[in-house]
Automatic annotation (TrEMBL):
It comes from the Bacteria. Belongs to the cytidylate kinase family. Type 1 subfamily. Residues 6-213 form the Cytidylate kinase domain. The chain holds residues 441 to 660 of 666 of the full protein. This is Multifunctional fusion protein. It comes from Limnohabitans parvus II-B4.
């Protein structure tokens, strides 16, 4: 059965999650936040007493293979416990990028990601949705925005949640994470050959949604 998938890949804080979930809502499709799986894996590893410095790849992959994770609306539950705030922090993103370089961990999360492909369709966001996980997807978007713009958005988001944040430190962090994601040997961040590029530096979220919907309609 041919279940449609739209992939949205791109660097940290480019707005993939917002765009993907808006398009998913508009189309009535399911939504996969693949970054959350790497974040939860890192969280589970730390909870199990493992370190992310001298990494035990096999042990973390074993955790990832039977990750008791559930998505409920905007909440992410690990073993029934709400870990949303813990995994969404900057530290959570940094930790995720450390486990995501491990080939055995990436491999362990493949089946779980495929299980999100259900009727009537799926919006999948991440770094390797179009290149590795759903290479047959009929629409692949590579979403970018300038580092300055991404840092600015992340800063606003944190401030609005009542966190304190320093915009220069945020920018340095996201550039470090991008560098790690782009340079790893397995499934590095890069556009699929048939991906359409969308730079949203000066677009509203509505305009970005509209662009993806137009591309999607032209594929029907
Ligand atoms: O998208 P998000 O910022 O939540 O992802 C956190 C980290 O997880 C990324 O920096 C990246 O290292 C990793 N990731 C990945 N492959 C994906 C999604 C996320 O390697 N498909």
């Amino acid at each position: 059965q041919n279940i449609p998938v739209i992939c949205i890949d791109g660097p940290t804080a480019s707005g993939k999650g917002t765009l993907a979930s808006r398009v998913a809502a508009a189309l009535g499709y399911h939504y996969l936040d693949s970054g959350a799986l790497y974040r939860v894996t890192a969280h589970a590893a730390l909870q199990a007493g493992l370190t992310l410095e001298a990494i035990d790849e096999a042990a973390i992959a074993k955790l990832a293979r039977s990750l008791p994770v559930r998505f409920e609306g905007d909440q992410v539950l690990l073993d029934g416990v709400d870990v949303t705030d813990a995994i969404r922090s900057e530290q959570g993103g940094m930790n995720a990028s450390k486990v995501s370089v491990l080939p055995a961990v990436r491999d362990a999360l493949v089946d779980l990601q495929h299980s999100f492909q259900r009727l009537p369709g799926l919006l999948a966001d991440g770094r390797d949705m179009g290149t590795v996980i759903f290479p047959e997807a009929p629409l692949k978007v590579f979403l970018t925005a300038s580092a300055a713009k991404r840092a600015e958005r992340r800063h606003k988001q944190l401030i609005s949640k009542g966190f304190s944040a320093n915009i220069d430190a945020l920018r340095a962090d996201l550039e470090a994470r991008d560098a790690r994601d782009m340079s790893r040997s397995v499934a590095p961040l890069k556009p699929a050959q048939d991906a359409l590029q969308l730079d949203n530096s000066s677009l509203t979220i509505e305009a970005s949604v509209e662009q993806v919907m137009v591309w999607w309609q032209s594929r029907q």
